[in-house]
Amino acid sequence: MRIDGRNLGANNVDRIASPPVVSRFAPSPNGPLHLGHAYSALSAWEIARRYVGRCLLRIEDIDVARSRSEHVAGIFDDLRWLGLTWDEPVLRQSEHFSVYQAAAERLRQMQLLYRCFATRAEITAGAMTDICDPEGAPIYSRQHSQMSGAEQAARMERGELFAWRLDMARACDIARAKRGGQALTFTELHDDGRHEIVMARPELWGDAVIVRKELPTSYHLSVVVDDARQGVTHVTRGRDLYAATDLQRLLQVLLDLPEPIYCHHRLIVNDDGRKLAKSEGSRALADLRLQGETSADVVQRLGFNLSV
Ligand code: GLU
Fold it and tell me: What does the pLDDT average to over 182-189?
């Protein structure tokens, strides 16, 4: 099977999952869970069950302005309703900013990060091509990569906020050297049990933001740090995060973190074929529950069978 045209042809790689398998479901509590989240959660628990492992729940609430405690409570209720259980205590990323800061510091010490004060408008205006990153944002033209220390100090003095960006070219060079000259790859586990080695192309992200302007971290940095320290062996999530894996594999190599296996599952779409969004409350699990659907209906509708 191909994903994104990047199959390297290495099917049935001899990389049998060896215990203990640890998978995880890592929702961001900025909206109610919908059917797409239920599919992700059930996939994560299904992998753990298949390999007699454990599935963890992690609350990805680094974006403290958008996260809501009622959505955290909703996540717990919805998962219990689906019949899923998890280990306590649940890791909440907002309680661990210092760990992500330490990882960023390590990258800084490797001279892989630089300050970027550019505003969104400046980044768009400065973009040299129409080519966007995998999330559709313009590729940053590195305007601030060579900014003098004096100008940085002056801008900070004026209270200008800055992000820390990854020097992608240098990062790819260092990662290649750390891998003994081998190309960066990740392993994708397909539904039919095949393992596929996929070429990672982090350069498609350009000089990605690793520490956001208004936060002490970013999604990509926190996710790799937590997958590693929680001992996650199988990262189960939707195909919308497939391209993120390239950047995350790069960070894992740079930070000497272990390599998990990835399982990017199909996306649950609307009747008109669009990916479900959190704003579409009509498909929130809590609403389905109120409309009288049972969890067994939902589990079956999504194609899982929890009773075997
Ligand atoms: N927190 C992310 C989300 O809710 C998922 C991150 C991941 O599974 O890697 O979309």
Answer: 98
Residue 10, ligand 1, Cβ within 6 A: no
| Nearest ligand 1 atom, CA 227 | 9
- Cβ-in-10-Å burial (0-12, 13-18, 19+) of 1 comes to exposed
Given a cut of 50, whether residue 60 has pLDDT beyond it is: yes
Q: How far is the CA of 27 from the centre of ligand 1 (A)?
A: 5
- Ligand 1 geometric centre to CA of 60 (Å): 7
Please provide the average confidence, as pLDDT, over all residues in the chain.
Answer: 91
How many angstroms does the Cα of residue 241 sit away from the middle of ligand 1? Answer: 8
Most distant pair of Cα atoms in the chain: their distance:
65
Structure tokens at 115: 């300050």
- Going from the Cα of 150 to the center of ligand 1, the distance in angstroms, rounded, reads 38
Q: pTM, whole model, 2 decimals? A: 0.92
- Is the C-beta atom of 223 inside 6 A of ligand 1? yes
- Ligand 1: does its nearest atom lie under 6 Å from the Cβ of 267? no
Closest CA to 254 of 168, 187, 188: 168
pLDDT band at 5 (very low <50, low <70, confident <90, very high): very low
Domain boundaries, the chain: 18-95+269-308, 97-230
Domain 18-95+269-308 top-level CATH class: alpha beta
Cross-strand pairs, 25: 57
Of the chain, the percentage scoring pLDDT greater than 90 comes to 85
CATH architecture of 97-230: Alpha-Beta Complex (3.90)
Q: Give CA–CA dist 135/205, Å, rounded.
A: 9
